[in-house]
Design goal:
6-stranded parallel sheet, Rossmann fold, 7-stranded parallel sheet, globular, about 500 residues, alpha/beta, 21 helices
Length: about 500
């Protein structure tokens, strides 16, 4: 079997890691494989590849015509494989990073090429600028036309999704059962055994370090992490964020949190990885527990990886992500689904005005004003019994709460959280159990078997009539108010 895997680049990161795993699995099976990308991988991540510069992000390669990109991809694949690929495997084709790519895929579908479209991130999910660019430059503002371009449907076109939520959404948009595949990312087992042994020998520091191993971008909900630091009120508790954001657009929000933390003398360490020089394993070794307060994840590696290193995960639950982890046997008892704040603490009129303005702007960015869809207001959905979940708020309103609680600690009693992670002791038996489940259910071996099975199914499919999924329905599902937060709008 000949496979061509295509992605914008092969820089270090989640998608490149998945590609590397796929390549290794294919090579073990004796398949011919080449990775086509706009940028070569680092030497330590070597894999059979051809660089096609026009495949990179438009802002890097400068953009090109769909015909040029199509011809260069086909030429590179044929040179590397000696013939046309049996399956073309594209990662994140619809994200809006390269406007020629969706048009290339439309052409390949019409040619009868067998395609696997592997979606890690949707432009409909908190990326209005990407979506607006696609809508206006590819489809002249026509949502139906954009659906035809982004989401082809045919017997020889299959989709891979990372989680049950995305699978449910794309089925609701019209995808057939045969053409969609749930493919959770594999979780790598590192040097976790040494840590598990160390824990059992009583090697944990008496100081409680709550570690948030993340790049501190907005959707990671940094304000909520600081809120827990305010409520800890214990000399034994320290809270550490590992990395600063790399995106310049994210820096002002991050620097704002650093200033507030310094002003209030919160027990928070920023850029812990750089400050200490510790590896990821070493940081986990120092941690009492790993915390996450994120409001959105694609796959949810943060809910799995720490257990492999002998550390429990606590913090904000994301049921649409963690539901399938629980179904697989992973126990997550240290999570909470809401952290409610009295609306009176925020200023009700100011808050509702902000929500209305942001919702209007967000809908305009996605072109919903042209569709005239009926969508409930954020206020009606978010405010329940005059309480609102802290994670719905933006930095301005979150800072109000943090300052108020810092000045009046007794007001923390007014916050409602059904599962306070600061009051938990972590069960070593549970940690070991979760580690065993993750090693079993999310192993590289399982992933390898699944991806090969998908390739076989696609290679056996016969080209047929081409339709498209309902992109408007997909947009409705992603933009439902219960899924949103001002941090992502």
């Amino acid at each position: 079997m000949r496979i061509a895997i295509c992605h914008y680049h092969l820089q270090r990161g989640g998608v490149t890691r998945i590609i590397l795993h796929t390549v290794r699995a294919l090579e073990k099976q004796g398949a011919q494989v080449v990775v086509l990308a706009g940028e070569a991988p680092p030497d330590s991540w070597s894999m059979p590849h051809r660089v096609v510069p026009e495949l990179h992000y438009d802002n890097i390669c400068g953009g090109c015509s769909a015909d040029t990109l199509h011809d260069h991809l086909v030429e590179a694949a044929n040179l590397a494989l000696g013939a046309t690929p049996d399956v073309w495997h594209f990662h994140n084709h619809s994200l809006g990073k390269n406007l020629a790519l969706p048009l290339v895929i439309s052409r390949l579908v019409k040619e009868g090429q067998r395609l696997l479209l592997h979606i890690h991130d949707f432009p409909e999910d908190g990326r209005p600028n990407n979506y607006s660019r696609l809508l206006n430059q590819l489809a002249s503002g026509d949502h139906c036309r954009l659906s035809r371009i982004l989401y082809p449907s045919a017997p020889h076109v299959h989709y891979v999704l990372l989680n049950s939520r995305d699978l449910d959404f794309i089925r609701d948009a019209g995808a057939s059962e045969k053409s969609v595949h749930l493919m959770p990312n594999p979780v790598e087992v590192g040097g976790g055994r040494e840590m598990v042994d160390m824990i059992s020998e009583g090697g944990i520091s008496k100081e409680r370090l709550y570690l948030y191993p993340t790049r501190a971008i907005r959707r990671k909900n940094i304000g909520e992490f600081l809120l827990w630091a305010v409520m800890a009120r214990s000399a034994r508790d320290t809270f550490a964020l590992t990395m600063a954001p790399s995106n310049p657009a994210e820096r002002p929000f991050y620097e704002g949190w650093k200033r507030l933390s310094a002003e209030l003398c919160l027990p928070v360490q920023f850029e812990y990885a750089e400050a200490t020089g510790y590896s990821f394993d070493m940081m986990l070794q120092k941690a009492h527990a790993v915390m996450t307060t994120s409001v959105a994840e694609g796959f949810g590696m943060a809910f799995l990886e720490p257990w492999l290193m002998g550390r429990a995960v606590c913090g904000r639950d994301l049921p649409e992500i963690t539901g399938e982890f629980r179904d697989s046997g992973i126990r997550l008892p240290y999570m909470y689904s809401r952290l409610d704040v009295p609306v009176s603490m925020l200023g009700r009129d100011e808050l509702i005005k902000k929500m209305r303005v942001v919702q209007d702007e967000y809908h305009n960015a996605y072109g919903l004003n042209r569709l005239k869809l009926s969508v409930p207001s954020l206020a009606d959905t978010w405010i329940q019994d005059e309480m609102i979940d802290f994670a719905r708020l933006d930095e301005l309103f979150q800072a109000k709460v943090i300052i108020r609680l810092s000045e009046q600690p007794e007001m923390s009693e007014e916050l409602a959280c059904e599962n306070n992670p600061l009051k938990k002791s972590y069960d070593q038996e549970l940690i070991s159990s979760n580690r065993n489940v993750i090693c079993s259910k999310y192993s590289l071996e399982n992933y390898s078997e699944k991806i090969m099975d998908v390739y076989l199914k696609i290679s056996e499919s016969e080209p047929g009539t081409i339709h498209n999924l309902d992109g408007i329905r997909l947009l409705e599902r992603f933009l439902a108010p219960e899924r949103l937060s001002l941090l992502r709008m």
